[in-house]
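@channel sequence for tomorrow's demo:
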Amino acid sequence: MASRSHPPGAAPAGRLHWALLTVQILFGLWPVAGTVVLAYMRPPALIGFRLVLGAPILAVAAGLPFRPLPPARDLGLLAVAAALGISINQLLFAEGLSRSDPVSAAVAILLLTPFTLAIAIAARRERARARRLVGVAIAAAGALVLVRVERLDLADDKLVGNLLLVVNVLAYASFLVLARPVFQRVGALPGMAWCFVFGALEALPLTGPALLGVDWVELPPRVHLTLAFILAGPTLGTYLLNAWALRRAESSLVAVYTNLQPAIAALSAWVVFGTLPEARTLLAAIVILGGITLSRG
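structure tokens (generated this afternoon):
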């Protein structure tokens, strides 16, 4: 029987869907794994571990040592993008997660689509259609539900944590808009590898002292295993699989899979910690998903 052929750059549908599903499972497990580790170290130490080890591995995987340097202007843009999408983004995420919970972190990630659209419209890279603007407004209302805007009390640790998580998504959305044209010139995987390298260097003043303050030998074996998973899965595996899948999948399909992250985080948090999401978190997720649906129109 003749094998089915695929156009250049395409992949069998099964492999593509498995890749996208694996990415969302790894991203969905990242807040739960991070919560386990943050019981034993400060947030900057966790991010430092992820960046200091992840950056050189991604650089080699992308072939940066064997490629010519990008033009100086692109290197400058990559450094700015790295601040938004790697150093600031990840430090805010870990600080927010340490004060909040894994499911709230995953729900906040849903804001990425409407935030990215809003920034792209403001930068005049997307058209400002009425339905899209209404969708962004509804998603923003969901964010306000998540951060308990009606009782804004900065002494409330969880409220501060959720605010940090929302700002972290806003930073990453800005990164996506800024980095997209640069990635088109230098390539998605090399561009992301450069961002990791710059991000690791930019975050080092905060992550370096925190890393030195951890007694790595005394950490329990389950923390070492969790750290290995964070490096292999949500750090290296997700970016490599995403780079492969994004060359072969439509953006709408990728977006649909992204919406699985809160469910994966909720299920894994229940299995690991025995906790269920609060009704307010579920309401915020529903409102944000409604806004996402409209903003894609």
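heads up for whoever presents: The chain is about 75% helix and 0% strand.
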